[in-house]
Amino acid sequence: MAKPAAIGSLHRRLSISLGGLALLVGFLGALGAWTVVRQLASEFNEDLRQAAAAIRAAPPVMPAPSHGKAPPAPPVLVQTWGPEDGAKPGHSNAPWVLLPRAQPGFSDVEADGILWDVFAMQAGDAYMQIAQQRAVRTANARRVAAWAAIPVVVLLPVLVWAIRVSVRDALRPLSVIGERVAQADLNHLEPVDTGTAPEELRPFLESVNRMMVRLSGLIDTERSFIANAAHELRSPLTALQLQVENLIRAPRDNIDEQLEELRRGIRRSGTLITKLLELARAEIGTPRALDNVAVAVVVTDVVTDLLPLAIDRGVDLGVERLDNVQLAATETDLRMLIKNLADNAIRYGGRGGRVDLSVRRDEADVVIEVADTGPGIPKAARTRVFERFYRGGATDEEGSGLGLAIVQTIAGNLGGRVDLSGRADGRSGLVARVVLPLRTMPPAAATATASTA
User: How far apart are CA 49 and CA 60, in angstroms?
Assistant: First the structure.
């Protein structure tokens, strides 16, 4: 199937079609006006001929006929007075029409109910005035206006129809593109072809395509997440069911051991569900009121919360450096990020190890580090540990494989990144480093968001 040709510019198409119609109507109007003006010019030439014939030496003005009705007044009247003439003109192209002698220049004269536009001048010994009926001028102006308007009035329905057809034809690509976009759903998020779209729509369609790509990736990720979550939840639930059945059949002298196993299974399931909820909340990224959070305070609270777990595992948990720095964030998200990093270090760093937390300001960034003395992570696996449910060679029975995925998601929401590296002092272990841009909110804005939260 041949690829449709590019539409080009809607602006250019509409300009060409509507401009062509405007030119056509203007041409027809000009043609009508030219026809009328040409006819008027012919009539005016005839008036000039009559006036020229009246300006001659003889005969003198003849009296109007006494019998019958006087002829109508001509459109143009020419009167001349010689030195010997009195009030009446010596020559006139219409002797039965008598206009008084007007002042030199332009003036208005009314005679026998007719208004005349008069121009008078002294020509040597003679005095001449030329007059034209005002009604004739008005009629000519109306004729010109009528002939100029007739093409517009006659072509107005055709013009409306042609504009409608032109606009509909020019905007038809919008309907086609709208139908293609309307066909998109969760199972068919195919980008719209921008090559055949009008130029004005291409930036918008490119934005729609980028949104579709992001949405498609998010849907694929969520489908994978749901499938993995269902798989991960099925195993502990099956184990709990078996433990309950074993508990029912277990002898009374062994019931304490079976109850402890059941308790550990419930704790594993609870931990997994909690992590899933944390990851879902981080990925949804629901807009929440931001505040200037003191990072050092959050680190201190996290250390206090995890201290029982560290003591239980024989891990020396402490703080190496705490710079006094504030960050525009939500305290819940920041606490979740730091707690997951420290929790992972305690669980996977090995018994009897050491975990150090630090916060420092590095120019325009805030750097949060959690360093442990455990076995570390091979370089080849440091990118995979951010995948959901990936646990590598971890043997911790309560691990969910979601901690670093949660950390990476929250860091991304805050505009930062997460890096994993070995220790710089040459000892075995892992350093998890979160780099966040140092952004703070103005005091007034922080107070307002805190009051509305």
Answer: 18
Per the structure block, which two tokens stand in for 400? 């969910």
Q: Which tokens belong to 38?
A: 């040409």
Question: What is the identity of the amino acid at 32?
Answer: G
186-284 — its CATH code?
1.10.287
What is the SS3 string spanning 99-159? CCCCCCEEEEEEECCEEEEEEEEEECCEEEEEEEEHHHHHHHHHHHHHHHHHHHHHHHHHH
pLDDT single digits (tens) 412-431: 888 899 999 888 887 888 99
> For residue 298, what are the contacts with CB-CB under 8 A and spacing of at least 6?
331, 334, 335, 338
Q: What is the mean pLDDT of residues 135-147?
A: 80
pLDDT of residue 156 exceeding 90: no
For the chain, the structural domain boundaries read: 55-61+71-136, 186-284, 288-452
Class of domain 288-452: alpha beta
Measure CA of the first residue to CA of the last residue in the chain; give whole Å.
57
Return d(Cα 18, Cα 451) in angstroms, integer: 56
Interval 187-204: pLDDT, tens: 667 777 776 667 777 777
Q: Is the pTM of this model over 0.85?
A: no
In whole angstroms, give the CA distance from residue 255 to residue 241: 16
